[in-house]
Amino acid sequence: MKGRFLNPEYDITLIVPCFNVAPYLPACLESIESQRDFDRTQVLLVDDGSADGTPGLLSEFARRHPNARVLTQPNAGPGAARNRALDEAEARYLAFADGDDVLREDGLRSMLTCALESGADMVVADFVNVPERPYGRWKRHFGKGDQLISDITRYPELIFSGSVWNKLYSARFVRDHGFRFADGRLFEDAWFSIPAMLSAGSIYLLDKPVYDYRKRAEGNSIMDSLRTNPANYFDHLALNLHLLRLGDRYSGDIKRMLQRYAAFTYRGFLRGLRRAPDGIDHSALLPLITEHYRLIPDDVLQEFAEHPGDDELQQAAKDGTLSGLLGARAN
């Protein structure tokens, strides 16, 4: 953020990156304009080079609502889109949504009330998967009522909540720490949200769903191609290496939280190498995998060795012998 003056007309700046989401966008926009005190929300809609009906839908929404603006850019990914909007944000608090999802009724106002009453740097709320499917480990800290956290190490599974759209951030907090999204990479939201959680003086856990995370019917979202897109193997590794190095700045407990995050979140990719998605450059990837696993203690790796072969794969990754193991299995 470039430190724009706060606009007293707005309580929240809502940032919505959009790329070819025309079939889903009307429901998203309807959920935004239905929010309580919608007129006190600055809505920044970023068209990330869409080639379908998305630009027209965004323009029509902005035409009807003076508190909404459309920002346009050539396709550069959601990280660049969100960063573009961060530089235009004017409100005291920041929230995010994706153009193919839906905000729950009163979701923004519920988070804002918690932030104002508690003074927390950020609010982390519950969300709902639509259709219903398994949740991440972070969900273990919900279902127990609202809580104000001043020591994140007491809530170690919260580190696995890498999304930004179930959270509200103090704009001053974001600006003072210089948090940005990863440009040109997938999993860009975790580059922003995880360092923010670690830096927050306090976090308010809102035990209420504020967002519906919708699975696309055609199965073409980023998450649907998690293990089949070769770029994901590199991008999640880049995220984890960044976080593991970040851990050196913190106490042992936080460092261990980041090690657990890296071990757990890359485990599926390591298993996926057995099926070797087309297009993966193993000569470039495997040395990075070795670097990654050498930064994680053995006892942390053993915690997440839950399937037959996990131990062997993780140890080979750490020893730099993964190429031989995968080659032997391929033969």
Automatic annotation (TrEMBL):
GO MF term set: hexosyltransferase activity
Chain ranges of the Glycosyltransferase 2-like domain: 14-143
Gene3D superfamilies per record: Spore Coat Polysaccharide Biosynthesis Protein SpsA, Chain A
SUPFAM superfamilies: Nucleotide-diphospho-sugar transferases (SSF53448)
Designated name of the protein: Glycosyltransferase 2-like domain-containing protein
Taxonomic lineage of the native organism: Bacteria, Bacillati, Actinomycetota, Actinomycetes, Kitasatosporales
